[in-house]
Amino acid sequence: MSPRIDSPSTPADEELQQILADPEIPGFTMIAGAGSGKTTSLVKALHHVISTRGRQFLANRQQIACITYTEIARQEIEDDLANSPIAHVSTIHSFLWTLVEPFQGDIRRWLDKNGRAALAELEDRYANAGARTQPKTLEALKRRIERRRDGLARLDNVEKFKFGVATSYGEGIVGYADVLKMVPELILNKPLFGKLIARRYPLVFVDESQDTFKAVVACLRHVAVTQKGHFCLGFFGDPVQKIYSTGIGTIVPEDGWRRVEKPENFRSPLRVLAVINSIRAEADGLEQISGLPADLQRDGEVTYFVFPLAADRNALLKKAQTWLEQHSEINAWQREDETKTLVITHRMAAGRLGFQALYDAFHGTRLQEGFTEGSAWPLTPFLSTLLPLVQAANSNRAELLPRLRKSSPLLRPENVDETTVRPTLATLAAGVDELVKTVADGGPGSVRKALSVAHERSLVELDDRLLQVLAEDPPESEDDEEQMLTALMRCDVAELEGYARYIGNDSPYSTQQGVKGAEYKDVIVVLDDDEGRHFQFSYNKYLGLENLSKAEAARGADEETSVDRTRRLLYVCASRATRALAIVLYAADVDAATKAMQDLLPGAHQVSTEDLASVET
Ligand SMILES: Nc1ncnc2c1ncn2[C@@H]1O[C@H](COP(=O)(O)OP(=O)(O)OP(=O)(O)O)[C@@H](O)[C@H]1O
User: Fold this and answer.
1) Which of 68, 537, 560, 593 has minimal CB crowding within 10 Å?
2) Which residues line ligand 1 (CB under 6 A)?
3) Ligand 1, atom 26: nearest CA belongs to which residue?
4) Dihedral angle at the C-alpha atoms of 174, 177, 179, 183, nearest 10 degrees?
5) Which helix (H) or strand (E) holds 579?
6) Residue at which a domain ends, from 180, 202, 220
7) In this model, does residue 237 exceed pLDDT 90?
8) Does the CA dihedral 518-524-527-532 come out positive or negative?
9) Pocket-testing residue among 14, 36, 40, ligand 1, by greatest number of atoms within 8 A of Cβ
10) DSSP state of 345
11) Are 320 and 305 within 8 A, CB to CB?
């Protein structure tokens, strides 16, 4: 069994079992602080239903749906439940797609209507472009109009629509953004959808509910209200851990819903708990108590550093890490794989892991999201084939052949026979050696060189769009995808290695936004607005070291500001540590910042820049 399922039941778990056994209760919320065991309760409740009513679900061809925020969280819950066929665990987009996929006619009609509206808007912009509009902008607009027209014309030929990252009408791919718009609209407007959802998934649990899209929450609530007696909807979340602006935050229960409370914290050692309670005080004042029995409670360690802005940030961060390693009284900070450094932006991680130019190439383009998720198509050949080939060539040549079998067109069964296989393998081996050399040499433009070698030596089959940029530099363009491809080709291939480690979660860095739900033994949170350049968050404003902008100062008490968002971000980060927490702040006025940190972090130990003078890194 999994540690989550085995963890002791709390009164909340028992209450949840009663709720799930009562068909008259259409919904519930379990809203509680960090580390209170919400996900644990969710998994225990799923396990309970599977063990007590699993057969009935199977016989009725029903499942319990559980919606998670990330793919990692999805996988963990699946593992906890030993991949039970009764639980349908998925991320939100993929769940929405499962609901709509059987309704191919509805998908086609929705795409057609939506596509025509988008086309009309583009045509309108083109027709009304002023005399000062740059010719390049007009060109790009024209290309977009042509692509839209072409996609709409090909819509009728699509046999079956599929789900993908970005919508491509002609290829029948419905992207994330469209799924998110289409499915809630269909659920709200077509009563049959609600009925079918309740019939197929009589229980739906949503984890990290605070960051769930408002439209999704609205359509699920609609099902709960209209299908009363046949459906139960449960939200597990914490409004003070809301990170994304698209998230709903607080979920107000409908009439007849139950609120399940969880006052304990099972994750944070006592000193960390005091700090997270203090950070939370100004949000909603909720104070947690440790849920662990006295003999399992630990004090933990909280340390903070305030560094001057003008100093060498990386050098000081390194010194702080060394200081922690040398001075911990509880033997924390000794191992890289137990330490996580949380930075505010991918840009910061890119700077520290050496993929700044790659980051810049994708930043601000429509592939930015795919870049941060590791799914951007131009990088796929590197991540899935070329870098693993280089790694195999360098450390385990036995892996080369199985890899080449998957990627090289020369090794497809129809292209290989007994007489050609030897020379083909020799050609491929020489190609791999050339690729290894190109990657080892690196340098500006080596991304293009590595791709050319891979293509010419038939190590991999490349997408037409990449072949086109290899053949000729795209003309100067305002199209962000074309600009990105040009910039990408100029990058050093070494950048891709740092990037691959980062997105593979194989580096000591993560972004502060990306660690929801996770926990690590030792956590360093870096507070550095200057390097972050993130307009949504500001640690200086949060700590009172900088004034709010005029617009923010004028907001009403119930409207959120960067101070609220930053408080929540810091709360999420600080509450990830299970043993030791360190906070590193870079500030213009070190004295004022130190005072603010003292007030915010009760019982924490301050280490000054002078204390670090003797530390050698
Ligand atoms: N009933 C329990 N008894 C002992 N430990 C528990 C219990 N419930 C949860 N835990 C432990 O507490 C930690 C936090 O649990 P979990 O991740 O479920 O909390 P959460 O409320 O979902 O967290 P967060 O909102 O901060 O991401 C985990 O290490 C988990 O194993």
Assistant:
1) 560
2) 3, 7-8, 10, 34-40, 238, 241, 266-267, 517, 519, 575
3) 34
4) -150
5) strand 577-587
6) 180
7) yes
8) negative
9) 40
10) -
11) yes
In this prediction, residue 477 carries a pLDDT of: 63
> Known binder of ligand: residue 574?
no
pLDDT confidence band for 533 (50 / 70 / 90): low
Q: Does residue 471 share a domain with residue 366?
A: yes
What is this model's ipTM?
A: 0.98
For the entire predicted model, the pTM comes to 0.83
Task: Give the residue-averaged pLDDT of 330-358.
Answer: 90
In a domain, 109, yes or no: no
**Pair of tokens at residue 102:** 């059987």
* 129 and 278 inside one domain: no
The answer as to whether 410 is a domain residue is yes
Q: Could you tell me which of 79, 71, 14 has the C-alpha nearest to residue 45? A: 14
Note whether 457 and 537 are same-domain residues.
Answer: no
Q: 189: domain range?
A: 4-100+182-261
Is residue 576 exposed (0-12), middle (13-18) or buried (19+ Cβ within 10 Å)?
Answer: buried
* Residues composing the chain: 617
Q: Write the residue with the smallest CA distance to atom 9 of ligand 1.
A: 37
Query: Do strands 203-206 and 577-587 pair parallel, antiparallel, or not at all (unpaired)?
Result: unpaired
Positive or negative, the CA dihedral 183, 188, 193, 196 is positive
**Predicted confidence (pLDDT) per residue in 136-194, tens digit:** 778 878 888 988 898 899 999 999 998 876 677 887 888 888 999 999 999 999 999 99
Across residues 295-320, what is the average pLDDT?
A: 93
Would the pLDDT of 531 be above 80?
Answer: no
Greater confidence, 224 or 349? 224
Question: Domain tally for the chain?
Answer: 4
Q: Terminal CA-to-CA distance of the chain, rounded, Å?
A: 44
Please check whether residues 332 and 465 belong to one and the same domain: no
In a domain, 226, yes or no: yes
pLDDT band at 513 (very low <50, low <70, confident <90, very high): confident
Burial class (CB in 10 A: 0-12, 13-18, 19+), 428: buried
Helices (H), 331-373: 346-353, 356-362, 368-373
pLDDT value at residue 166? 64
User: Chain-wide mean pLDDT for the chain?
Assistant: 91
**From the CB of residue 509, how many other CB atoms can be counted at a distance below 10 Å?**
21
* φ/ψ of residue 37, rounded to 5: 90, 30
Percent of the chain at pLDDT > 90 equals 69
Domain boundary among 482, 504, 526: 504
By the 8 A CB rule, do 374 and 517 touch? no
Q: Mind listing the pLDDT tens digit for each residue in 481-502? A: 888 999 999 999 999 999 998 8
The verdict on 484 and 401 lying in the same domain is: yes
How far is ligand 1, taken at its centre, from the CA of residue 38, in Å?
Answer: 6
Token readout for 71 is 């793919």
Residue from 267, 295, 572 whose mutation best tests the ligand 1 pocket (most atoms within 8 A of CB): 267
Binned at pLDDT 50, 70 and 90, residue 355 comes out as very high
* Pair 168, 212 in one domain: no
287 Cα to the center of ligand 1, angstroms: 16
